[in-house]
Amino acid sequence: MSKNQLVLVLGMHRSGTSLVTSMVESNGFFCGKHPMQPSRDNPNGYWEDDHVVDINNRLLASLGYYWFSLVWLDLPTLQQSTEYKSLRDMAVNYINELLEESNKLVLKDPRFCILLPFWFDVLSSLDLDVKVVLVKRDFISTASSLVKRDHFDFEYAAQLIYLHWSAVVAFLPESIERILVTYEDISHNELGVRHKLKDFCGVKTLINDTLFQKELEHNVGVQKIECGFCWQQDMLRNFPDSRPDKEKIASLHAYYHALNVAYFQPLHRTYIINEIKNIADSLKGKRVILYGASELTSILIGQLSETIVLSVDYAASDTVSIDKYGTRFCSPQAISDVEHDIIFVGVLSREDEVRAIVSEYSNKPIIFAEALFLQHR
Q: Which domains does the chain have, with CATH numbers?
């Protein structure tokens, strides 16, 4: 066991991570040499170290992303950054500097959630006992706060929350000791939560004052809103006791790309979200055949998982299928053997060819998704 202790606070933006970090700090933990200054959004402070936040922002920027980008970043992807090694060395050196100030550290930045592979690569080079405090707030309240502060759409905010929480579940090593703190528990029983944190951190600090301020709560008790794909609901409601579906996350690559590109064009972003929802709603209750193992087709796989009766691709044959996006694509010949109402086509620039192929096996309506998405890529 090391004499050095690090508590990482992991949670989504606008979920109470600053408050929880302040509670850990009150137990004698050091938050860093460069504290981020308070702002109108967090008048009591962020309990983040500007230098750590800068490392995270630089790593994201080197890959073309921001803190709000909808993206899945595993270690191989992060290591594609030309700055990976230099930023890793910088992080190792800085934490060693902090350990010269105190052997009890607490670090918090919501960006940690999507950059965990990088940070556990960093921590593997350090003499530290690491513990994690997971912070969770009702996802609708969190999304509402993001919508108000950052002018996101609810769907965009829900996807951002889903990716942050899924990354924590996927990339936090099972060997790391952790504890879950919910914002709702703090609001109802702050002293109980603080005693729970004190015991978790292994300190004997006396707790006399309270830190929670009711007047600083953001978007509590908001109206329930339906957002997120159906297969994402378990994670959005039951984090961290849910598992991410990495194949379905990968299948949303084109969808996320379109939203990332359109982030600075709110009308386009809203249009994309609404059109995808409209298509999904119009196809629900019908027997759908997906044609084409493409990213474009994959966008609706998660939303239509209960209505898809068959997936086909021209490259498949009677003996060889294509397994992609968590779906098995068969030969188009299989169309004639399956009862269906609609064929949804996601391949690009081959409308005449696809119509000729499909018409051999079906006379049902064909929907081509290409025109909808290409104008937003």
A: 5-244 (3.40.50.300), 251-374 (3.40.50)
